[in-house]
Amino acid sequence: MPLFLPILAAIVAILLATYLLPRTVVVTRTAYVAAKPADILARAASTDGFQTFNPYCTTDPDLKITPFGPASGVDAGFRFEGKEGKGTQTITAVTDTSVTYLIDLGAMGKPVQVIAAKPSKEGSEVTWSVTSDMGMNPIFRVFGLFMDRMLGKTYELGLKNLKAVS
Fold it and tell me: Of 43, 53, 57, which Cα lies nearest the Cα of 117?
């Protein structure tokens, strides 16, 4: 039996195994903020307000932000370009409990991000989450295993920034 057949079989098995990994990945972080939920959501629903706690502005002082659409509410958004990538973030829904954004990263996907706030003793319990569809790409599926570790710290920084400005 030629040596390449077992190697080929191992490669095929590994590729097939990646399809057992989750297609959808969710990263969530929660913090308590000393502000009313309505005030937090108004800030989150505003392009300028979002920049006051945007964690990427903290980690990349040269991040380019170009607003588009209305100043706040549905269809408000911004283009971004920096050391961690480029794309757009657009508000797709605003309710009395959350703001939902579509992030377009081009070939890297279109994750959906939600900032939710509800009353708590401290003011508000704020939950920041993102849901990403890893699709059928085996490399993206493996990458999904590391999303919580990578994005979790970013959202923790964003929540820390939100506490500081609220």
Answer: 43
Kindly report, residue by residue over 16-66, the tens digit of the pLDDT.
777 778 889 999 999 999 999 999 999 999 999 999 999 999 999 999 999
- Exposed (0-12), middle (13-18) or buried (19+): which is 85, by Cβ within 10 Å? exposed
Strands 85-94 and 112-120 turn out to be unpaired
pTM: 0.88
Give the Cα separation of 45 and 72 in Å (integer).
5
Distance CA(114)–CA(41), nearest Å, equals 11
Task: Give CA–CA dist 64/116, Å, rounded.
Answer: 26
- How many CB atoms neighbour CB 79 within 10 A? 15
Residue 101 to residue 90: CA distance in whole angstroms: 5
Structure token digits, residue 52: 């006051």
The residues pairing with 114 across neighbouring beta strands, listed in sequence order, are: 100, 129
